């Protein structure tokens, strides 16, 4: 059966929690949150999240009625940061990994971001050694811009994060931006 992608709603809360908890248990190094922090979350809290503005941009991949993957899209709220969107909570059910579900989810996430007026770049963080995720993001044009040492400590073991971004501006937008920076008199090298 083909996989279809759609926005998650409050009615998907139980399936979301179940997939999320299995991801947190099976691949704890891939997420900043942890199983212990989320296993007692009441269903009503997740339902309220999906009914809110903050929970609007979570997408699920479905095989029939079964939720088999998900990804979230966010946007910085502050005026000076609003040009940045980010990807979070990317996860595919173990049984469906390597079948193209992750790529479909990322394509949906990028389509969603493309509709956000004024967003010029997308950021994400991925744990060092997560070859599947890094390969997927690089194939979609994300580039490494940094590394956070000891970003996570899982069961006493420290892990670094690779920081990646993808610019969305076209050349004209970029030259407009550069000329507005030049006319502001602000020295970017400081
Ligand atoms: C990362 C993850 C979301 C990828 O989802 P997926 O459905 O398996 O991805 P896809 O099947 O679309 O594959 C994406 C690409 O990665 C490649 N890939 C898969 N496993 C790989 C591996 N171990 N090493 C290198 N590349 C790999 C695939 O071949 C594919 O590339 P291609 O289209 O050029 O052949 C999934 O592995 C997952 O849920 N991992 C655990 C949670 C996680 O790491 N989340 C990301 C947090 S940043």
From TrEMBL:
Record keyword Acyltransferase present: yes
E.C. code: 2.3.1.189
EC top class named in words: transferase
Molecular function GO labels: mycothiol synthase activity
CDD domains: NAT_SF
Every N-acetyltransferase domain range: 3-169
Stretches assigned to coiled coil: none
Pfam families: Acetyltransf_1
Protein keywords: Acyltransferase, Transferase
UniProt name for this protein: Mycothiol acetyltransferase
Source organism of the structure: Duganella phyllosphaerae
Taxonomic path: Bacteria, Pseudomonadati, Pseudomonadota, Betaproteobacteria, Burkholderiales
The encoding gene: mshD_1
């Amino acid at each position: 059966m083909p996989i279809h992608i759609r926005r998650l709603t409050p009615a998907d809360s139980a399936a979301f929690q179940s997939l999320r908890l299995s991801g947190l248990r099976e691949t704890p190094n891939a997420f900043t949150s942890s199983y212990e922090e989320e296993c007692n979350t009441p269903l009503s809290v997740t339902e309220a999240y999906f009914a809110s503005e903050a929970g609007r941009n979570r997408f699920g991949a479905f095989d029939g009625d079964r939720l088999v993957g998900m990804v979230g899209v966010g946007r910085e709220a502050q005026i000076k940061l609003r040009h940045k969107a980010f990807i979070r909570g990317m996860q595919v059910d173990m049984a469906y990994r390597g079948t193209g579900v992750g790529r479909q989810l990322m394509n949906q996430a990028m389509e969603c971001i493309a509709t956000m007026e004024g967003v010029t770049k997308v950021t994400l963080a991925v744990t060092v050694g997560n070859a599947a995720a890094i390969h997927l993001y690089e194939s979609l044009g994300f580039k490494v811009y940094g590394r956070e040492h000891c970003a996570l400590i899982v069961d006493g073991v420290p892990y670094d994060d690779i920081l990646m971004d993808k610019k969305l501006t076209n050349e004209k937008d970029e030259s407009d931006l550069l000329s507005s920076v030049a006319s502001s008199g602000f020295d970017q090298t400081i």
